[in-house]
Amino acid sequence: MKVRLVKFISLTALIGIVGCGVSEKTLSDAEKKMNDMKTMGVPDSALSTVKVYLYQAKDARSRGNTGVANKTAASLKKELAAVDSKYKAEINRLMPVLDSLRSVIKATRSGLTGIQAKKLDSLMVAVDSFANIKWYLQAYNKAAEIGAALPQFNKDEETSKELRSSIPGEWVCTNVTKSTEVKGVHAVEKKIFTFQRNGKVNLVEKKSGQSGPFLKEDWEFRSWGDWDLHGDTVHLFIKRFAAIKQNFTRLYVENGKKVWKKEPQPTYDSTITDGSQDRYVVYQDLKDDFERTRKF
Fold first, then answer.
1. Confidence check: pLDDT of 130 > 70
2. Is 52 exposed, middle or buried (0-12, 13-18, 19+ CB in 10 A)?
């Protein structure tokens, strides 16, 4: 997309010095102009002198020193005009660079899939938005950041393609809780992650037994959603989450006697739309903590 040179507000109309002194509106307009330039991407360092003149003009006006206020406002007008001119030229210089960056990013995007492609698309929304409202310096700065990150995008894409065939299957992780001090403590926790080749995933997570001196657990949760790879990390996008059972038993002491009391929690089956149940696992951790019991 070709872009056009941004047209700045006329500084002659902006900074007017009348014979009776500098008006408050004149200084307010100058401050607004300075802030607008900052918003469009002009760095603070380029506006440092403008800030000094603006402060001095405001201070002189508040003290009733008309001569100093007029002189400083004239310097303010001149400095704003200089910054305006400099950054018009800078924008002209950057336009072909921005076009080139966008072309390189587009070419890289054509080779990406899955999360890599979605992430790059998301980042480019800001570039397009800035360009559409003619904040070209902001658009260039953002595009330059994205351009610098393209090698990592390509690396993540390559890693994802290498690992993708290693993910489908049933992965099982089993943890046993025991205690040498409390004889009754013995609980088994199991996680079963099933990754389908079509990108679907379902999880079964359950635990049963006495997990501590004062707690017995018997619960099971199930999740359904999609999976994808971002580099070496498996992302799980959960769309449905169900509590199949939530049975807890706690030990209390009443009248000097130990009493186990059941404290069941309600079951539920929920559709997830806010990403609150999403999770991720690095492939190496999946290999270390789980056993792939079935391959698809």
1. yes
2. middle
How are beta strands 233-254 and 257-262 bridged, if at all?
A: antiparallel
Instruction: Give Cα separations from 186 to 117, 169, 210, 215, 249 (angstroms).
Output: 46, 29, 5, 11, 14
- Strand (E) or helix (H) holding 288: helix 283-289
Judge if pTM exceeds 0.70. yes
Q: Where are the alpha helices (DSSP H) in the chain?
A: 11-14, 24-39, 48-62, 66-109, 114-132, 136-163, 283-289
Q: Residue 160 CA to chain centroid, in angstroms?
A: 21
Residue length, the chain? 296
Q: Which amino acid is at 285?
A: D
> At 280, which helix (H) or strand (E)?
strand 279-282
Return the axis-axis angle of helices 66-109 and 114-132, rounded to nearest 10°: 150
The candidate with the shortest Cα–Cα distance to 20, out of 70, 77, 75, is: 70
With pLDDT > 90 as the criterion, what percentage of the chain qualifies?
70
Q: Assess whether pLDDT exceeds 90 at residue 253.
A: yes
Report the C-alpha gap between 197 and 296 in whole angstroms: 7
β pairing state of 215-230 and 233-254 = antiparallel
Q: Is 203 exposed, middle or buried (0-12, 13-18, 19+ CB in 10 A)?
A: buried
The Cα 178–Cα 211 span in angstroms is 8
